């Protein structure tokens, strides 16, 4: 099945395979099982598609599953009037065409039996084993009688937990939804719209994350037709009116084949028509469409190195659009996708997008996790048995693990692990449902590195707040700051792919999140944890009474004279407050109104401004007195007893506080400004070091 079929109502199939007649299959199903030595005619299409991917597959278990499913569903009919067995057959055929292994197909044939017939999970386990039983249980809906309005979100929760233990559960659900969407026309318009919205908000993002593009693109087109019928018809007419649009692509494809043949690179060059939603998006992006916008070139080769060889030939023999180049081989997408993307200019200025990948990459690009076969098969065995026996039908105990505790499943990506973690903290179905849709709305994932060598997988746009909760869980309540790539940043700082992040936690444990954190949290795990903490500490959510006040200040008496001597005899001397010079700083002075000489440090910006205005400087030197006045700015993370600890350090250095200003906390950061009178300027470096050693202080500087 093509991932980019141009018509969602008639998806393409393998060349030579006739279009399925579900009514004929329904009649075959009604005739009942055939002789034990023959495969039922109704399942022959599934067997053919399955053998195309798995030539040595044992079809006996499929026959057994079909006979049980057909007998269980006998007498049941779909709303379209077809025998119900046509639905599990169609779902199984979708998975077979994508290359699913025998266990998945067996469970697919039986996926509605426990939900809609008298068959029990115990009977499924007795006939087909624990694996098939677990898959069937994973896709079985919860009863509305028991859960009411929460049945749908709780069913998805159950399904996702089961997917965390066996990703094949979601593969079956996606195929099930695809066939239901294909046959949705018999339902009332309002029910079509409701199902289409859930498909758009939850299942299409899940298909994207699992890499199953073949299902995702057709689901997108079917949802597009239901929720946006006018745009759908406009796009359909646009494609129909440009039936010969791919001729321009064909001209470029002929040249590409010639170039690669001359370079000696074995390859296959195909034209991939865009599906409806893709054409719609391109039209919105570019306005008027060119012929080459209705499709893309796909170049398939055998080895990874050949992909880069093809890229080199194309960029040598054609004019490339460098801005369109993306390397998803060196840096695969989080959904297993690998390919090289580029665009080249053809004759008459036409531009063709080109995808370059190996045959295996193409298989994974189309079928995602389904193309991996059975990820739970032990590496030392050649059978379809699970890596570790004993998997049961209970989702909480269905975790397949190696004896050393390492997960055998290579298909549980970071987004799924995060989802499984935060859903435990969302017992309320509404919170879970809205959080799930918010999580799935993020269409890209980034990887950030921890300073201890580990990594964090986060959605694009995640902040340091999200990183803190991803790394520390609820202990992140005590986070007071972060370093990103070695630099101190606020917790609201957005993380980028490849950043190195160090989260800083308060040692006293008295810190907690503020309501502002919710503005920066993108992940459900962070938002749920912060919201719960704020609910338990309602006084924190209220704005502090002093928050809007100006910085508090305490002022002492002014010093009568400064220990600086100028070249103007008897002129009053004042040390500038903008740079607070102290011995042995290089200084200069400027006369101001009243004859007073203001002394600045030589590198002060005010000196440059004075000189630019034509003001003549006055020579200044330090006198014998060692006493000095200096203004220090302290940058720190907020915590209890911070002010007491700083003033204690200042007092220990025999410095007097002339004035102090403390700004209201912002994003857990506090700024203190102290003007100090020191008995000896030589003690200033030691005082600055001592203040920097105070817990929570990350910088002390002179004004």
Written overview of the protein:
The chain is α+β, with helices and mostly antiparallel strands and 703 residues long. Helix content is 41%, strand content 16%. The strands form five sheets. Strands 1, 2, 3, 4, 5 and 6 form a six-stranded mixed beta sheet that branches. A hairpin with a 5-residue loop joins β15 (587-591) and β16 (597-601). The longest helix has 21 residues, at 189-209. The protein starts with 21 loop residues before the first helix and ends with a strand. Mean pLDDT is 79; it is low at 1-20, 27-37, 378-392, 394-410 and 543-561.
Summarize the structure.
The protein is of the alpha+beta class. Helix content is 41%, strand content 16%.
Q: Secondary-structure map with pairings?
A:
Layout: H1 22-30, H2 44-53, H3 60-73, H4 86-97, H5 102-109, H6 113-116, H7 121-128, H8 130-139, H9 144-147, H10 151-165, H11 168-182, H12 189-209, H13 213-227, H14 229-241, H15 246-262, E1 268-273, H16 276-286, E2 295-301, H17 304-317, E3 319-320, E4 326-327, E5 340-345, E6 351-358, H18 359-367, H19 414-423, H20 429-441, E7 445-450, E8 455-459, H21 464-472, E9 479-484, E10 487-489, E11 500-505, H22 517-520, H23 524-536, H24 538-541, E12 552-555, E13 564-566, E14 573-575, E15 587-591, E16 597-601, H25 605-612, E17 620-622, E18 628-637, H26 642-652, E19 656-662, E20 669-678, H27 684-692, E21 697-702
Parallel strand pairs: 2-6, 7-11, 14-16
Antiparallel strand pairs: 1-2, 3-5, 4-5, 5-6, 7-8, 9-10, 9-11, 12-19, 13-17, 15-16, 18-20, 18-21, 19-20
């Amino acid at each position: 099945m093509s991932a980019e079929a141009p018509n969602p109502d008639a998806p393409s199939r393998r060349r030579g395979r006739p279009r399925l007649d579900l009514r004929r299959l329904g009649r075959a199903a009604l005739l009942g099982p055939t002789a034990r030595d023959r495969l039922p005619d109704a399942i022959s299409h599934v067997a053919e598609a399955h053998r195309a991917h798995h030539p040595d597959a044992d079809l006996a278990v499929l026959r057994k599953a079909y006979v049980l499913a057909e007998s269980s569903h006998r007498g049941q009919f779909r709303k379209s009037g077809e025998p119900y067995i046509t639905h599990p057959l169609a779902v199984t055929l979708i998975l077979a065409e994508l290359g699913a292994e025998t266990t998945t197909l067996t469970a697919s044939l039986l996926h509605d039996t426990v939900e809609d017939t008298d068959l029990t999970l115990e009977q499924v386990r007795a006939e087909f084993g624990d694996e098939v039983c677990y898959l069937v249980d994973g896709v079985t809906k919860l009863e509305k009688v028991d859960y009411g309005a929460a049945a749908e979100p709780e069913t998805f929760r159950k399904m996702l937990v089961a997917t965390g233990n066996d990703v094949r559960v979601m593969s079956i659900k996606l195929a099930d939804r695809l066939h239901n969407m294909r046959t949705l026309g018999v339902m009332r318009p309002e029910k079509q719209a409701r199902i289409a919205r859930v498909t758009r908000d939850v299942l299409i993002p899940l298909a994207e994350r699992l890499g199953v593009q073949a299902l995702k693109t057709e689901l997108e087109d079917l949802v597009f037709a239901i929720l946006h019928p006018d745009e759908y018809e406009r796009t359909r007419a646009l494609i129909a009116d440009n039936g010969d649009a791919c001729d321009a692509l064909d001209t470029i494809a002929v040249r590409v084949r010639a170039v690669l043949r001359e370079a000696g690179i074995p390859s296959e060059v195909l034209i991939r028509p865009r599906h409806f939603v893709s054409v719609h998006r391109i039209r919105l992006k570019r306005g008027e469409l060119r012929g080459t916008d209705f499709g893309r070139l796909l170049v398939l080769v055998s080895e990874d190195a050949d992909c880069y060889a093809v890229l080199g030939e194309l960029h040598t023999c054609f004019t490339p659009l460098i801005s369109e180049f993306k390397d998803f081989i060196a840096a695969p997408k989080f959904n297993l996708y690998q390919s090289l993307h580029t665009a080249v200019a053809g004759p008459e200025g036409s531009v063709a997008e080109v995808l370059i990948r190996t045959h295996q990459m193409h298989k994974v690009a189309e079928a995602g996790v389904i193309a991996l076969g059975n990820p739970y098969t032990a590496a030392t065995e050649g059978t379809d048995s699970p890596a570790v026996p004993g998997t049961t039908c209970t989702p909480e105990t269905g975790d397949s693990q190696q004896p050393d505790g390492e997960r055998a499943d290579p298909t549980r990506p970071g987004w799924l692990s995060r989802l499984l973690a935060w859903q435990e903290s969302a017992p309320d179905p509404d919170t879970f449902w809205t959080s799930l849709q918010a999580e799935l709305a993020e269409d890209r994932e980034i990887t950030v590195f921890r300073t201890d060598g580990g990594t964090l997988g986060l959605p694009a746009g995640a902040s340091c707040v999200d990183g803190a909760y991803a790394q520390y869980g609820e202990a992140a309540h005590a986070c007071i700051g972060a370093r990103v790539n070695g630099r101190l940043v606020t917790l609201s700082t957005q993380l980028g792919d490849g950043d190195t992040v160090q989260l800083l936690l308060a040692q006293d444990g008295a810190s907690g999140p503020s309501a502002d954190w919710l503005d920066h949290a993108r992940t459900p795990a962070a938002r749920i944890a912060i919201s719960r903490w704020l609910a338990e500490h309602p006084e924190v959510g209220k704005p502090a009474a002093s928050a809007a006040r100006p910085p508090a200040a305490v002022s002492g008496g002014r010093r009568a004279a400064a220990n600086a001597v100028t070249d103007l005899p008897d002129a009053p001397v004042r040390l500038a407050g903008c740079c607070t010079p102290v011995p042995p700083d290089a200084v200069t002075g400027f006369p101001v109104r009243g004859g007073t000489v203001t002394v600045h440090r030589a590198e002060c910006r005010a000196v440059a401004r004075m000189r630019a205005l034509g003001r003549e400087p006055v020579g200044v030197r330090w006198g014998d007195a060692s006493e000095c006045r200096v203004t220090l700015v302290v940058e720190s993370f907020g915590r209890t007893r911070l002010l007491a600890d700083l003033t204690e350090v200042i007092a220990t250095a025999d410095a007097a506080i002339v004035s102090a200003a403390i700004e209201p906390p912002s994003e857990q950061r506090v700024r203190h400004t102290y003007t100090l009178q020191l008995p000896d300027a030589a003690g200033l470096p030691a005082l600055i070091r001592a203040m920097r050693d105070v817990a929570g202080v990350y910088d002390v500087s002179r004004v």
